[in-house]
Amino acid sequence: MKILAIVGSLRTESYNLQLARAAGAVLAQNHPEVEYELLDWADVPLMNQDIEHPAPEAVARVREKVKTADGIWLFSPEYNHFFPGTLKNLLDWLSRPVSDTEGQVLRGKPIALAGTTPGMSGTSHAQDHLVTMLSFLQADIMNAPRLAIPHIGQQMENGALSLSSSAPYLEKQAAAFVGFIERHRNR
Ligand code: FNR
Asked: Which residues form the NADPH-dependent FMN reductase-like domain (predicted)?
């Protein structure tokens, strides 16, 4: 089983990137059958229909990664009670048909939602907007459990994520998502 992580922040020290890495460690420990990869998408250009066909190399690459993944685990920050515009741009590219004969790659794709903020929101507003967009794209969203971790600063030790209180919730979401993907495959 292949799970692709998409982190909605391009920041080197991103809390959400650190959370995605912690998720990888949980999968390696508890679900060793899962292949886990973080999507590299920083080079995807701004959506401009003038350059849509043929797809830019970076777009073709991310589409292929999404297409061959059994599930997508999204780790998004919250910007102004929404998900970042950079992530919207990536999802906009993914929302377009691959070719005249091949549809868009998010259709029917199992997706889990997670995120963290230093403040009290925990990204729950951003996740609601992701659900709206991804439902429109007919992705197969795992509605529960979602993971929204507030006050992440309290779970940092010496600059690294400790997840002292949230680790059980991350483990729970990992197990639920693996089961969700298995049920999706057996349908
Ligand atoms: C933020 N931040 C933020 N936090 C929040 O809980 N709700 C919000 O609406 C916003 N809005 C917002 C807008 C913009 C433009 C920025 C840059 C930031 C703070 C945000 O949660 C914080 O910077 C996180 O550290 C971003 O996630 P990463 O990069 O650490 O993963």
From this structure: 1-151
